[in-house]
Design goal:
255 residues, Esterase_lipase, 17% strand, carboxylic ester hydrolase activity, AB_hydrolase_fold, MAG_DAG_Lipase, alpha/beta, Rossmann fold, seven-stranded mixed sheet, Carboxylesterase, single chain, globular, two-stranded antiparallel ribbon
């Protein structure tokens, strides 16, 4: 089976000055990032949003991938942007935020700033530690997708949560949490006041763990987890453009 209609990766080629890499969430697709990407493109930025391995096809495909595969895809996209744009920002939703943090930890000041929307770095529920065992017995559990407050809006995501892949995501959380102090870039963190997927402690762990001195926290009062498709989407889009423009490298003055 091929890629689902609407789940395709996308990109916009704009300014060579500033690029923006977007990372979608676990079991999701670039569809959740498309309106954000269009807004960034409208502001003149070059935008890339890859489809992560195992996503956008059938949920069993995700069980055949690991966090290293997902990270490899966004890392490759970042390197391509760094080769063509003077200044590069990275933004992500949910696990996309986790991957964004990992890129920030590895690439340091080669990334000008990061935008995190309901990022995940842990899960407090008791069954999380059972994922490696559960994955050998049960291939999937009910979906985590489509946590959206806005009526009529639907997330293009899997109808089931693949358990082996979820166990790999938990490993990524541990890796990212251990290195949060390596994050030194400016951070714009937007999180929903009500989120039925990612618990509030996640954003607090990020805020407490990063070494960045330039950190802005925005509470999204009228959205659930998939905030990029929810009532506060315009807040995310507008604030991310303002953030990027404020932290973009200034053109060198000619003598």
């Amino acid at each position: 089976m091929g890629v689902l209609a609407g789940a395709e990766p996308f990109g916009h080629t704009g300014s060579a000055e500033t690029g923006f890499l977007l990372c979608h969430g676990f079991t999701g697709t670039p569809a959740s990032m498309r309106a954000w990407g269009d807004h960034l493109a409208g502001a003149g930025f070059t935008v890339r949003c890859p489809l992560l391995p195992g996503h956008g096809t059938r949920w069993p495909d995700l069980n055949r991938t690991t966090w290293e595969d997902w990270y490899g895809a966004v890392r490759e996209a970042l390197l391509a942007l760094l080769a063509t744009c003077k200044t590069v920002f990275v933004g992500g939703l949910s696990m996309g935020g986790t991957l964004t943090l990992r890129l920030a930890e590895e690439f340091g000041d080669r990334i000008a700033g990061i935008v995190l929307v309901n990022p995940s770095v842990t899960r407090l529920k008791w069954d999380t530690r059972l994922l490696p065992v559960l994955g050998r017995i049960v291939p999937s559990v009910p979906a985590i997708a489509n946590d959206i407050k806005k009526p009529g809006e639907t997330e293009l995501a899997y109808p089931r949560t693949p358990v082996r892949a979820a166990a790999s995501l938990a490993k990524l959380w541990a890796v990212v949490r251990a290195d949060l102090a390596k994050v030194t870039q400016p951070v714009l963190l937007l999180h929903s006041s009500v989120d039925h997927v990612v618990e509030p402690v996640n954003s607090q762990l990020v805020l407490d763990g990063v070494s960045s001195t330039d950190v802005t926290e925005v509470v999204l009062e009228n959205s659930y987890h998939v905030a990029t498709q929810d009532n506060d989407a315009e807040v995310i889009f507008t604030r991310s453009v303002e953030f990027a423009k404020a932290h973009a490298a200034q053109p060198e003055e000619t003598a």
